[in-house]
């Protein structure tokens, strides 16, 4: 496989003035006619005419009306062309029904749809399929389908024929086409300057009752982007389509967003509160891409974080505004630690802006997305809100209609603030999570914090340099009052001290408030200080963090010795449970324990080899101890979380249900599932139903309810995904592999559907002790299925290989077992480029 390097970037030698596409749809033999006006770019010396194209049958090609005979390879074609503007025409034939990779034009449940990012357009026709080639598209669709959609505004629409024109120049990765027997959930929106926009969510018949929430989320997103970023929508229509077979969450195609149905369809009966929140965030994310991604796009795929980091940052601001800011921040950090830290600390570590790749689809990662968003959060914290707003205005004004780089992005900040951002830029080029050690001194009324930062070297970054770290610090007095309000310390050196003078007594520091930088903070302290901060910290994030640290530390010692659960932790949690002044959602987050994989990482970092069974046992013991410790308050919590009003998927109600669910999980450990069974029977929404079922399964009960759940929901694909996943996630360690194996034999296990595959095999990899079962059967089952899926759907296969990325944490026996599976996958004949790259990076 060839490796592509950022340093080799070279512009294309031609401008594309316009693109006309005509599709004659047919499941096995779709014809695509293209008419593309090229103009040589005199500023580019290399004017080789290369068009990407894969799996295309070329029927005919013409230049200015004359038939030509291009040189065709697996990757595309070259052809002699004039040195003056010319019109390229081609007719190709493709096979949407045979396209199981779900990239390019494919079929899902009888409808046609497309996925072109990153490099899927080349499976539709010959084209310079690179994001810096932007053009105006007109698309004509012919086919016997009531609904025919593409980007932009409709010019003609009728049964069997439609023409769409998109006036905004765009790269081919934003192209989309949808055709099928679809129903619309319509609405409309008037933009800030008074322009009407027709909105539609298109679904297959039967799903029309699940669109209302997504539509509200869309309208809220449109308003928010006007109010907060001054960004107005720019077409007459905005369409969203729900598709069952989709490799990821959703796609921001211009004016025609295509969504995995799990990321848009919801009703109270079938979707959980977590589903609703995720849907609201993804709709916002894709909508926000209209400006950050579409109007301003990426010069090349190395710049992916330019649009993804910024858009994730924007959607997290949106969720904070719509819901609770502290709860959103804590959830984001939980997610960052669960998904990005393992990547950054293992063999797949790469910078936020990678410098090389073999398959770009392997770089749609938590590092590019979530760490990319953290970097923007740090930048905003360093320059301040006003300068951030000014820099963004300049970015939009200067770069609208362009394909840009991280250099362009940082330049607007440098210009607005006068700052030298060259050191800050290392956040984009260095892999690895910095570890920040803190020491303190107290002398004559001066309290000094000394920080040292160290980023562990990795294959991607062998010699890491000090980063700019915004470290938010506040100081508390002995009674819990804040003696110094939050201040952002700007650390730039490897070791640096900050002094706080004129203090009456030694304070208790609250460090890294709001998780102001994505680092691992190392502070040797005792449980008493953690408990103090858990009770008193005025920063909501750090208050939660104190409880999290207590939980982590007690679990680590329980997993490695015969230590009993820490009393400070149990008392602290009891106080949290009793504190009705705290937001229920926040209390629910406080009660959640660190994940077992996160504990394994912490143990490995502290120098011991994690034992998955011991971690599981410690986690069970701690939950049981908490249940017993809190048994007197749990009934009151449960009663207080009961909701009499009709279901609303908003933050208030969701928070109560989350706290009620956390309490029910504890109660189930004391009452053998009586109350969970009662909640299951009475539930009139999916959150309560699924929470109750989950409690029962984790107690080793609920067989009857599980069967009933299947019967009740067997016709609802999204709910049955939950049914597959929950059984595996909640299985005891010695049952998980067997359960997953049984389910892969179930009549409803459609392994070619990514959602179902992930619900089954992805869930197995998330059951930490189950996946890492000592005989290696978890590894073998996953490897078997990855080998089977690879020729059918390389993207989903490659993505799921990351289940193995943490393998070097474990003992020698497990490492050998995992290595054997990785080598078995690597040795599979004709393994895809996607999976080959992932396995070779993981093997190191
Ligand atoms: N931009 C798409 C992701 C495309 C993934 C290609 N493998 C969705 C998003 O980030 O909004
Ligand atoms: Zn995105």
Automatic annotation (TrEMBL):
A molecular function (GO) term: metallopeptidase activity
One Pfam family it belongs to: Peptidase_M1_N
Enzyme Commission code: 3.4.11.2
Ranges of residues in domain Aminopeptidase N-like N-terminal: 99-174
Residue intervals of the Peptidase M1 alanyl aminopeptidase Ig-like fold domain: 432-523
GO BP terms, alphabetized: proteolysis
Record's catalysed reaction(s): Release of an N-terminal amino acid, Xaa-|-Yaa- from a peptide, amide or arylamide. Xaa is preferably Ala, but may be most amino acids including Pro (slow action). When a terminal hydrophobic residue is followed by a prolyl residue, the two may be released as an intact Xaa-Pro dipeptide
Top-level EC class: hydrolase
Domain Peptidase M1 membrane alanine aminopeptidase: 213-427
Keywords, alphabetical: Aminopeptidase, Hydrolase, Metal-binding, Metalloprotease, Protease, Zinc
Ranges where the Peptidase M1 alanyl aminopeptidase C-terminal domain occurs: 528-843
Superkingdom to which the source organism belongs: Bacteria
Cofactor list: Zn(2+)
UniProt family annotation: Belongs to the peptidase M1 family.
Protein name: Aminopeptidase N
Source organism of the structure: Sedimentitalea nanhaiensis
């Amino acid at each position: 496989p060839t490796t592509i390097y950022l340093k080799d970037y070279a512009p294309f030698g031609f401008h594309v003035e316009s693109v006309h596409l005509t599709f004659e749809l047919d499941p096995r033999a779709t014809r695509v006619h293209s008419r593309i006006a090229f103009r040589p770019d005199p500023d580019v010396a290399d004017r080789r005419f290369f068009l990407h194209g894969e799996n295309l049958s070329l029927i005919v090609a013409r230049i200015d009306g004359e038939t030509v005979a291009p040189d065709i390879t697996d990757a595309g074609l070259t052809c002699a062309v004039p040195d003056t503007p010319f019109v390229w025409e081609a007719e190709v034939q493709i096979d949407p029904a045979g396209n199981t990779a779900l990239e390019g034009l494919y079929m899902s449940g009888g409808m046609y749809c497309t996925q072109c990012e990153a490099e899927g357009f080349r499976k539709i026709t010959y084209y310079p399929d690179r994001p810096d080639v932007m053009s105006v598209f007109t698309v004509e669709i012919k086919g016997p389908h009531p609904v025919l959609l593409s980007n932009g505004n409709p010019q003609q629409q009728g049964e069997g024929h439609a023409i769409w024109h998109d006036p905004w120049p765009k790269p081919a990765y934003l192209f989309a086409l949808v055709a099928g027997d679809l129903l619309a959930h319509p609405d409309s929106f008037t933009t800030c300057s008074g322009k009407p926009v027709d909105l539609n969510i298109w679904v297959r018949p039967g799903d029309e009752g699940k669109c209302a929430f997504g539509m509200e989320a869309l309208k809220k997103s449109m308003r928010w982007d006007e109010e907060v970023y001054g960004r107005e929508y720019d077409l007459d229509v905005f369409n969203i389509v729900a598709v069952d077979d989709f490799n990821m969450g959703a796609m921001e195609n211009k004016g025609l967003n295509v969504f995995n149905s799990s990321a848009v369809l919801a009703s109270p009966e079938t979707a959980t509160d977590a589903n609703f929140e995720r849907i609201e965030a993804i709709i916002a994310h894709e909508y926000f891409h209209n400006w950050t991604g579409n109007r301003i796009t990426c010069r090349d795929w190395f710049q992916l974080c330019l649009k993804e980091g910024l858009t994730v940052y924007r959607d997290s601001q949106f969720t904070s505004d719509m819901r609770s800011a502290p709860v959103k921040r804590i959830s984001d950090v939980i997610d960052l630690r669960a998904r990005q830290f393992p990547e950054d600390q293992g063999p797949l570590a790469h910078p936020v802006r990678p410098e090389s790749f073999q398959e770009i689809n392997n770089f749609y990662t938590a590092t590019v997305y979530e760490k990319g968003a953290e970097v923007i959060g740090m930048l905003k914290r360093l320059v301040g809100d006003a300068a951030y707003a000014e820099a963004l205005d300049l970015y939009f004004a200067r770069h609208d209609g362009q394909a840009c780089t991280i250099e362009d992005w940082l330049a607007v900040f440098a210009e607005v603030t006068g700052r030298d951002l060259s050191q800050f830029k290392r956040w984009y080029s260095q892999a690895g999570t910095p570890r920040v050690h803190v020491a303190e001194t107290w002398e004559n009324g001066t309290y000094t914090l000394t920080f040292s930062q160290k980023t562990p070297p990795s294959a991607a970054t062998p010699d890491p340099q000090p980063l700019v770290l915004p470290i938010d610090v506040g100081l508390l007095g002995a009674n819990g009052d804040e003696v110094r309000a939050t201040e952002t310390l700007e650390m730039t050196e490897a070791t640096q001290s900050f002094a706080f003078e004129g203090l009456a007594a030694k304070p208790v520091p609250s460090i890294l408030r709001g998780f102001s930088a994505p680092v691992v903070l190392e502070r040797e302290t005792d449980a008493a200080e953690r408990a103090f901060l858990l009770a008193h910290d005025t920063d909501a994030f750090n208050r939660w963090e104190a409880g999290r640290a207590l939980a982590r530390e007690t679990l680590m010692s329980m997993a490695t010795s015969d230590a009993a659960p820490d009393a400070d932790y149990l008392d602290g949690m009891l106080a949290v449970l009793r504190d009705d002044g705290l937001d229920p959602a926040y209390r629910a987050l406080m009660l959640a324990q660190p994940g077992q994989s996160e504990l394994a990482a912490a143990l490995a970092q502290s120098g011991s080899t994690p034992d998955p069974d011991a971690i599981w046992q410690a986690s069970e013991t701690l939950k049981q101890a908490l249940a017993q410790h809190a048994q007197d308050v749990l009934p009151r919590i449960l009663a207080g979380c009961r909701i009499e009003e009709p279901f609303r998927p908003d933050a208030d109600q969701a928070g109560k249900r989350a706290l009620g669910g956390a309490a029910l999980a504890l109660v189930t450990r004391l009452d053998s599932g009586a109350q969970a069974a009662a909640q299951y029977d009475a539930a009139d929404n999916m959150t309560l139903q699924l929470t109750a079922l989950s409690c029962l399964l984790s107690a080793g009960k609920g067989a009857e309810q599980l069967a009933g759940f299947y019967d009740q929901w067997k016709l609802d694909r999204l709910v049955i995904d939950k049914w597959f996943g929950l059984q595996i996630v909640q299985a005891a360690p010695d049952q998980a592999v067997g359960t997953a194996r049984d389910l892969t034999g179930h009549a409803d296990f459609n392994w070619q559907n990514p959602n179902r595959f992930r619900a089954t095999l992805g869930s197995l990899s998330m059951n930490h002790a189950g996946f890492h079962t000592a005989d290696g059967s978890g590894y073998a089952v996953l490897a078997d299925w990855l080998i089977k899926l690879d020729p059918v759907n390389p993207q989903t296969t490659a993505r799921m290989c990351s289940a193995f990325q943490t393998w070097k944490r474990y003992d020698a026996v497990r490492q050998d077992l995992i290595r054997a599976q990785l080598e078995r996958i690597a040795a599979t004949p004709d393994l895809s480029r996607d999976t080959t790259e992932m396995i070779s990076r993981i093997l190191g």
